[in-house]
Amino acid sequence: QVQLRESGGSLVQFGGSLRLSCVASGFTLEYWHIAWFRQAPGKEREGISCILSTDGSTYDADSVKGRFAISRDNPKNTVYLQMNNLRPEDTGVYFCAARPQDRSGEWYPLSRSAYDYWGQGTQVTVSS
């Protein structure tokens, strides 16, 4: 059974840092593209960062460029999101999502429709 589990969310002060983890089970994460999304209260879920399985390329939303960094540890079947210089507008539930690398068709790395499996999310709250 394919599962993704996020962890690492917390309450943090403005300017602080957090590292989120996304652990995969039931499949080998090495062959899947992984993305992080977030959903703020009352807002649409937005893609913020993606890492490709094929060559490790990353894509980041403009809102997090220079502050967030996605990485993967294939032996641990885990993808991380390092978040620095956090702002109140970063508050939300953070989800990881997976897409198999052999899925065909055009796709956009930060689009919700690109991904097949989702975790349950972890809450990040940034106080001002």
Description:
This protein has 128 residues and is mostly beta strands. Helices cover 0% and strands 48% of the residues. The chain has no helices and eleven strands. Strands 2, 4, 5, 6, 9, 10 and 11 form a seven-stranded mixed beta sheet that branches. The N and C termini lie far apart (40 Å). The mean pLDDT is 96.
- Low-pLDDT windows of residues: none
Helix content: under 10%
- Care to count the β-strands? 11
Strand content: over 45%
**Structural class determined from secondary elements:** mainly beta
Estimate the mean pLDDT confidence: 96
The topology string of helices and strands comes to EEEEEEEEEEE
Describe the largest sheet.
Answer: 7 strands, mixed
Shape: globular
Give a summary of the structure in a few sentences:
By secondary structure, this protein is an all-beta fold. Helix content is 0%, strand content 48%. The strands form 2 sheets. Strands 2, 4, 5, 6, 9, 10 and 11 form a 7-stranded mixed sheet that branches.
List the helices and strands and how they pair.
Layout: E1 3-7, E2 11-13, E3 18-25, E4 32-39, E5 46-51, E6 58-60, E7 68-73, E8 78-83, E9 92-100, E10 117-118, E11 122-127
Parallel strand pairs: 2-11
Antiparallel strand pairs: 1-3, 3-8, 4-5, 4-9, 5-6, 7-8, 9-10, 9-11
